[in-house]
Amino acid sequence: MFPETVSDRTATDAAALLTELAISHGSKDNISVVVVELRRLKGISLVSDEPKKEPARRSEDKAQQIEF
Questions:
Q1: pLDDT digits (tens, 9 = 90+) for 9-62
Q2: Are 4 and 17 in contact (CB under 8 A)?
Q3: How far, in Å, CA of 52 to CA of 38, rounded?
Q4: 5 lies in which domain range?
């Protein structure tokens, strides 16, 4: 889809490229582009060693589980 790789460019470069693509594809209206640059934080693991916890149940969920 993109004419060039954007993975090694800045968010500003990506926004400019997306704007150029919109114009080159015939956009006649205002163009807004939002690019969010996410960076991995050093020392923070994205995978937890802790077991997955069950979500807390709401009171109406508990009521539905009662057998009569």
A1: 788 998 999 999 999 999 988 999 999 887 777 777 767 667 777 777 666 555
A2: yes
A3: 25
A4: 1-40
- Nearest CA to 39 out of 7, 1, 3 is that of 7
Beta-carbon count within 10 A of 26 CB: 6
pTM given for the model: 0.47
Domain membership flag for residue 18: yes
SS (H, E, C) the chain: CCCCCCCCCCHHHHHHHHHHHHHHCCCCCCCCCCCCCCCCCCCCCCCCCCCCCCCCCCHHHHHHHCCC
CB atoms within 10 A of CB 47: 4
Count of domains observed in the chain = 1
